[in-house]
Amino acid sequence: MINRRFIRGLLQNSSFPSFLMLVLLVAVNAILQPNFFSYQVFRINFLTFTPLILVSLAQASVILVGAVDLSIGAGISLVTAVMASLMKDSIGSILLVVLLGIGVAVFLSVFNGFFIGVIGPPPLIMTFATSTIWFGAALLLMPHPGGYIPETYYGLYTTSIGGWLPVTVVILIVAGLFCLFLGRLPAFRHLYAVGGNEKAARASGINVPLTKIFAFMISGVFVAMAALCVVGQTATGDARSGQGFTLNSVAAAVIGGIAFSGGKGNFVGAAIGGIILGLLINIIYFASITSFYQEFMKGVIIIVALLIGAVPRLRREISRQ
Q1: Closest CA to 185 of 66, 57, 61
Q2: Three-class SS state of 114
Q3: What are the b/e assignments for 227-247, b being 16+ CB within 10 Å?
């Protein structure tokens, strides 16, 4: 009986389809890359995947509350431009600019959360508008890729602690601990209540505007972490460095089992969704698919992943009829 309950709960878990897809994609990658499980490939993959995983977590916190943030990519671009414009070689300068970058990212997200939560414009319209503002500010600050990132900074991002633990894995561990901390907060459970039924949440005494601001603030923390990783990865400032992250973050969160309507899903699934997209990019590259078909194939695979994720929900709806 216990085993049946466990299996039933596993099958109904919103992250289970994404986990199955993850296992499948790992197998395909292992076939295409004979050295896929080697330490070197593992390190390189996490250097590439970490920013995508972090923006997936950022988007997940917003979608959970029933919103969506189309300004995430532009926010990353602005933070990278700010950091590359101001960072110098000294440790003090690096620390101050890192703190400034974190502050900028969190401010941009809280700005969106305040307007959406308090004033009430549709999240899609609001964040689309602010994305153009953030991108314009990034272009104004850095019209062409450049700036200066000291080797001390980007060298740290690409190194390994003790020669075996990549810094990117440490970053993801910190992000995971932050997620565990959030899960213990009563305010975090309010995200599910507001995303599931905003009117009912308001009637039960939950401060809906403050909850939305809190969701965007969480997103800002993850966006800041992603931007710091992008700067370490590219070692430069570029107003276009974040362009690919916005839609990928939405796709990864939904693939990972976050209900686009809000109120369902978890950070684990969102992280898995980010890894899935990273593995998809690997497959497309190592399968030698021409650039003309790469985006097409990527879109097809994402749609298939979304359909697989919708199977449990469709089965529940059919069983109710």
Answers
A1: 61
A2: helix
A3: bbbbbbbbbbbbbbbbbebbe
Residue type, 156: L
Tell me, what CATH number does 130's domain have? Answer: 1.10.3470
Task: Decide if 22 is inside a domain.
Answer: no
* CB proximity list for 186: less than 8 A, separation 6 or greater: none
Residue in the structure block whose two tokens are 């969701």: 215
Instruction: Count Cβ neighbours within 10 Å for each residue of 250-273 and write b for 16 or more, e otherwise.
Output: bbbbbbbbbbeebbbbbbbbbbbb
Q: What is the pLDDT of residues 268-301, one digit of tens each?
A: 999 999 999 889 888 888 877 776 676 776 677 6
pLDDT in tens, 186-235: 899 999 999 989 999 999 999 999 999 999 999 999 999 999 999 999 99
The SS3 of residue 238 is coil
Answer for the pair 239, 142: CB distance below 8 angstroms, yes or no: yes
Its domain, for residue 165, covers: 40-312
Question: Could you tell me if residue 302 is inside a domain?
Answer: yes
Judge whether 228 and 58 are in contact, CB under 8 Å.
no
Structure tokens at 129: 């508008």
Total domains in the chain come to 1
Contacts of 165 (CB under 8 A, 6+ apart): none
Give the whole-angstrom CA distance, residue 286 versus residue 267. Answer: 29
DSSP reduced 3-state for 11:
helix
Write the CA distances from 217 to 21, 111, 113, 150, integer angstroms. 30, 9, 7, 29
For residue 12, which amino acid is it? Q
